C-alpha cells in the first residue's frame, strides 16, 4: 500500500514536470520572443515585461505570490504546495533554458504557443497543481459571491486584453486573445480527456424492452432506478423503472434510434459526462456468454407474449 502511494505521488509529480516543461517551451520559444500574451497571471507577467526590463521568471514568481496566499485560504494546502513547486519550476525553466525561437509567423506563434501552454497547464491541473493563479482567484470569488469560476476568469482576461490593446497594440491584443482561446480549449481537453461521454436517463412504460435493446444493441451497462410515481403528458404514472446509462458520443444516434423503435414517446434526458471509471463502457458486454442477460431477455419476451 505504501509503495503504491509513493509511486502514485512520484507519477503525479513526474506529470507535473512534463506540464512545466511544455508551458516553459510555449512561453520561451513562442510567446516571449514575439511579445504575445496568454491569459491569467502569465499574461500579466508578459504584459509587465513589455514595459519594464525585469526577467520574466522573477515577474512570474512575484505576481503569483498574492494568488498563492489567497489559495492558502481557499483550496487545500496540498494544492498550494504543488502549485508553489510548479510555478518555481516554470520560472527556473524560463530562466535557465535557452529555447530557440522557432518561427516569426504570428499565426503559428498564437496557435502553437497556446497549444503548448494549454497542454502544460492542463496536465498540471489534472495532477492537482496550478500553474496560473487566476483559477485560484476564480475559486475564491465563487465561494464569496457565487459568481462562476469560468466567468471570473473570463472577466479577468477581458480586462487584461483591453489593457494590452491600449498599452501595446490592438493587433497584439487580438493575437493574444487567439492564443488564450486555444490554450483554454486545450486545457479543458487535457483535463476532461479526449473521449466524449454522454449520460442518458430514460423514462418509458416500455422500460423492460428498452433495457434489453440497450444491452443487446449497444452493449453498455446500465443502472435502473425505481420510480414510485410521476405526472406528465399521459397523466399520473406509478411503479416504473428509470434507466440510466453512459455511452460514448459516437453511439448517441444509435441510442436514440434504438429507443425510438420501441417507444416514440419515451422521455429522454441527455447530459455531458467529463470522466468515467469502471463499469461496462470501454469493454462491451458479451451478450452470448452473459447468462444473466440471456435470462433477463427470456423473461421479458415471455411477459410480452
Question: How is the topology of this model organized?
Answer:
Elements: H1 2-34, H2 40-51, H3 56-72, H4 77-96, H5 106-126, H6 134-145, H7 149-167, H8 170-192, E1 197-203, H9 207-218, E2 222-232, E3 235-248, H10 252-262, E4 267-273, H11 291-304
Antiparallel strand pairs: 1-3, 1-4, 2-3
Q: How many independent structural domains?
A: 2
Strand order of the largest sheet: 2-3-1-4
The run of helices and strands is HHHHHHHHEHEEHEH
What value does the average pLDDT take? 81
- By DSSP, the count of extended strands is 4
Unreliable sequence segments:
none
Strand coverage percent: 5-15%
Q: Helix count?
A: 11
Give the terminus-to-terminus CA distance: 54 Å
* Largest sheet entry: 4 strands, antiparallel
Structural class: alpha+beta
Helicity range of the residues? 55-70%
Q: Please state the overall shape, judged from the principal axes of the Cα atoms.
A: elongated
